[in-house]
Design a protein that fits this description.
The structure holds two protein chains of two kinds. In chain A, 12% of the residues lie in helices and 41% in strands. In chain A, the strands form six sheets. A five-stranded antiparallel sheet of chain A has the order 1-2-3-4-5, with no helix packed on it. A four-stranded antiparallel sheet of chain A has the order 6-7-11-10, with no helix packed on it. In chain A, strands 9-8-12-13 form a four-stranded antiparallel sheet. The longest helix of chain A is centred in the N-terminal third of the chain and has 14 residues. Chain A is globular, with a radius of gyration of 24 Å. In chain A, 42% of the residues are buried. By secondary structure, chain B is an all-alpha fold. Chain B starts with 12 loop residues before the first helix and ends with a helix. The chains are: A mainly beta, B mainly alpha. At the A-B interface, helix 1, helix 2, helix 3 and helix 4 of A face helix 1, helix 2, helix 3, helix 4 and helix 5 of B.
């Protein structure tokens, strides 16, 4: 076999892998055999070719179709809705980190949600994570607008055998997951009897429907799925995020500045605070980082104890080409290094609050490098250059 | 791959037989239609299987059934291209192209190869896809395309030469 044949076979194999298969293909095929007029769809339709190729379906939750029933009980700041007519922003580009890490094998579908009175768009699609292909099909989401700026992620999304739905986590007040096609509505039942209708979305090639509900955090919720006849198909119990303390007014140490259109639309500063651990249920002190907008990362690991390096952020958005790694380390850790394959990214630690025996650190890593080298190892060095701490951070997102 | 299950009509012998073939080969037929340049590969593959269900006699021999579906996919895709050519003549803006998403997520070298492949005459492209993606024999390709094995040979050979020229390599 010569070179051009190799290239041809590989190209055909890759292109073939991008043809999605609908789960209801068999029923659609049978439906064709029952038609009186035979022929491929294009012979039966006057839909323009380009439009037919680009059709994306958004299924609105039954509760929303019936006039937002149940929203009178809604707690206020967060609710979900979907629309096929409102104009969504541009979807994440093919070079965004999530698209590169998990290329879509389905349509990329925009879902309109309202969080805290502001419109947000969450783009969802299915694909296979390059760093964890063996986990099977994954659901990806990226949210923009409102208080979100290109945040999201991908996670394995099979519906377990015998169950109707699964959770894929979420971002902020937005919770997402997958549910079987029979589902016609999704509702989050909150403590106190509040009912929050969610939305169901589907698109070309989706193996499942995607569900989304929006409710204020922290709160636990029972997410209930029902079919078109109102019969309950299943439910999920979602735990509350841990309560986030308010940003302290004093005692902050600016750790790094980030440019506009990276972590937020405008430039900002990430600032570290030493917190009283009781506010997050941890004895002793913990460390928290707040960015200029109010987003925060709080450690649930006590700040005192044996020598350690704690990563609080390995953050990047779909708009950012750099990932921001930051955290704290104990007094004897003078340098923190991230190993990505043969490459290293590192920073010297700087002294934090007097008497705390803590040091702060941060560095940036190109997102492209994170995607190329799936294994990530963080090392802590002492003043003599000895490795005194090591942690495998696992695969990149 | 999605979990494909037989529908309510699966009790019928014909449909039941086809459902097994469908489970085993439907994704492959969708991919074949996609590689041949169909703008809606699933539509092509579903129509091919629907025609098979209506063609009871072919179900006696599973190999013949598969060859029938494969051949139908090739024919329908070719017809689809003819239809699109007419659409383009009538409405110049209604061009079929792979979505930018599909193109962009391909490896750059693969994109170059597939662009060169797409520029070949339909028959040569079909012969090459059936040969190098499905690894079919010349006889099987001939059956799928409805041409003689000798014509298959010349289509593959000329197609590869054209590909090599387009990619600046020696076939």
């Amino acid at each position: 076999m010569n070179t051009i044949e190799d290239r041809l076979r590989e190209a055909l194999r890759e292109r073939a892998g991008q043809s999605p298969v609908s789960p209801d293909a068999w029923s659609r095929t049978l439906a064709r055999t029952r038609r009186r007029v035979w022929g491929p769809a294009w012979t039966r339709s006057m839909i323009p070719v380009t439009a037919a190729a680009a059709i994306v379906v958004i299924i609105v939750g039954a509760a929303l179709l019936t006039g937002n029933r149940g929203q009178h009980n809604e707690p206020g700041p967060a609710r979900g809705s979907a629309s096929a007519s409102a104009t969504p922003p541009a979807p994440p580009g093919p070079n965004s980190y999530l698209m590169r890490g998990t290329p879509p094998v389905t349509a990329v579908v925009p879902v309109k949600l309202t969080v805290g009175g502001k419109t947000t768009w969450t783009f969802v699609w299915f694909g296979y994570m390059k760093s964890a292909r063996d986990q099977g099909i994954a659901l990806c989401s990226v949210t923009d607008g409102g208080g979100y700026y290109g945040s999201g992620g991908c996670g394995a999304a099979p519906v377990p055998p015998g169950q109707a739905a699964a959770s894929a986590g979420g971002t902020g007040a937005i919770q997402l997951g997958v549910v079987v096609r029979q589902a016609a509505s999704v509702t989050a039942l909150l403590p106190g009897g509040h009912r929050v209708p969610g939305v169901l979305a589907s698109g070309r090639g989706f193996p499942y429907q995607v569900w989304a509900v929006v409710y204020p955090q922290p709160s636990s919720a029972q997410v209930v799925f029902a079919d078109a006849g109102g019969r309950r198909l299943g439910q999920l119990s979602l735990r509350a995020d841990y309560p986030t303390p308010s940003q302290p007014r004093t005692g902050g140490i600016p750790v790094f500045r980030y440019p506009a259109r990276t972590l937020e639309p405008s430039a900002g500063t990430m600032t570290a605070y030493l917190l009283d651990g009781r506010v997050v249920g941890v004895r002793g002190h913990v460390v928290g980082f707040w960015d200029s907008r109010s987003g925060s990362s709080i450690s649930l690991v006590p700040a005192d104890g044996p020598p350690a390096v704690k990563v609080l952020g390995d953050e990047f958005t779909s708009h950012s080409k750099q990932a921001y790694f930051y955290g704290y380390a104990h007094e004897n850790v003078r340098r923190v290094t991230l190993r990505l394959g043969g490459k290293q990214y590192s920073a010297r630690t700087v002294a934090a609050w007097p008497g705390s025996d803590l040091r702060l650190w941060h560095f940036t890593v190109p997102v492209s490098a994170l995607l190329v080298h799936p294994s990530r190892v963080l090392l802590g060095y002492d003043a003599a250059g000895r490795v005194i701490w090591q942690q495998n951070l696992g695969a990149a997102r | 791959m999605a979990n494909l299950r037989a529908g309510p009509d699966a009790g019928d012998d014909t449909v039941g037989d086809v459902s097994g073939l469908f489970r085993a080969r439907y994704p492959e037929m969708v991919r074949l239609a996609g590689l041949l340049g169909a703008d809606d590969p699933e539509d092509i593959a579903q129509e091919a299987f629907a025609r098979l269900i209506r063609k009871h006699g072919s179900l006696r021999d599973p190999d013949a059934a598969l060859a029938y579906v494969r051949s139908t996919v090739c024919n329908l895709t070719r017809n689809r291209h003819r239809h699109l050519r007419v659409v383009r003549l009538r409405t110049p803006s209604a061009r079929h192209e792979e979505s930018s998403e599909q193109i962009a997520i391909l490896n750059e070298d693969h994109r170059e190869v597939l662009t060169a492949l797409a520029a070949l005459p339909a028959r040569r492209r079909e012969a090459i896809v059936l040969r190098y993606w499905l690894d079919l024999s010349e006889r099987e390709i001939a059956a799928a395309m409805g041409i003689s094995p000798g014509t298959v040979k010349s289509n593959v050979s000329r197609g590869m030469a054209a590909l090599a020229a387009a990619l600046g390599e020696q076939a």
